[in-house]
Amino acid sequence: QVQLVESGGGSVQAGESLRLSCAASGRIFRINTMVWYRQAPGKQRELVSSITTEHSTKYADSVKGRFTISRDNDKNTMYLQMSTLNPEDTAIYYCNAQIVEIIRNLNDGGERLEPREVWGQGTQVTVSS
What we know:
Layout (H helix, E strand, L loop, with lengths): L2 E5 L2 E4 L4 E8 L2 E12 L6 E6 L5 E3 L7 E6 L4 E6 L8 E14 L6 E9 L3 E6 L1
Parallel strand pairs: 2-11
Antiparallel strand pairs: 1-3, 3-8, 4-5, 4-9, 5-6, 7-8, 9-10, 9-11
């Protein structure tokens, strides 16, 4: 039942900005590393940026200095602020996270923790020149 939902995509012109959000929901005990990926038509999926629970960040060379990743642990939400967009940024952007889920046992009513790898459905970003 844990889910990730991306939002904030759209169509902009080169040089403009967008802010993407990735919201996690469900019975969450902890969210570890969260990652933004993107996939352009006819191309392989690319790692864009990642952020740990402690807010340590990494960026692909193609977006360094233009994109900023962040997260709000209290809201279980990750963000990607994208500035100075160019047509090469056009892609579907996906959220990925390592989430520890709280599971209710059906036999005894007890609970346990279960780590999961979760993907969002993606949000389209289109940048025109």
